[in-house]
Specification:
GO cellular component, one term: cytoplasm
Distance between the termini: 37 Å
Strand order of the largest sheet: 1-2
Keywords: Acetylation, Phosphoprotein, Protein phosphatase inhibitor
Protein name: Protein phosphatase 1, regulatory (inhibitor) subunit 14C
Radius of gyration: 26 Å
Organism: Seriola lalandi dorsalis
Number of helices: 4
Family: Belongs to the PP1 inhibitor family.
Length: 108
């Protein structure tokens, strides 16, 4: 079909540009530690409240918030609402963990 300028050249071929693929890289070891810790927290809170996870009262434990402070005393003060043994065990488990930073993006 003729183009708007009157010539009858074929339309340009579609761009065959290779689509870039974006992936997000996480530190798998830290993610695994975090998952294990979160599962342990849920298990412990289920025992403390003697109920299943779905029935548990709203309890917020922000692991990154705990990792921002430097001492166990400061961390414990953020967790005063929880029984002592749970807090002591939780603090022992987060020792050596790192706060998760924003994931890095890799693209082509």
């Amino acid at each position: 079909p003729p183009s708007s300028d009157g010539s009858s050249s074929p339309p340009p071929p579609p761009l065959s540009k290779k689509q870039g693929k974006v992936t997000v890289k996480y530190d798998r070891k830290e993610l695994r530690k975090r998952l294990v810790l979160e599962e342990w927290i849920i298990e412990q809170l289920s025992e403390l409240y003697d109920c299943e996870e779905e029935e548990m009262p709203e309890v917020e434990i922000d692991i990154d918030d705990l990792l921002e402070v430097n001492s166990d005393d400061e961390r414990a003060s953020k967790l005063q609402v929880h029984p002592r043994d749970f807090v002591r065990e939780l603090l022992g488990r987060i020792r050596g963990m790192r706060k998760l930073s924003a994931p890095t993006k890799k693209g082509l």
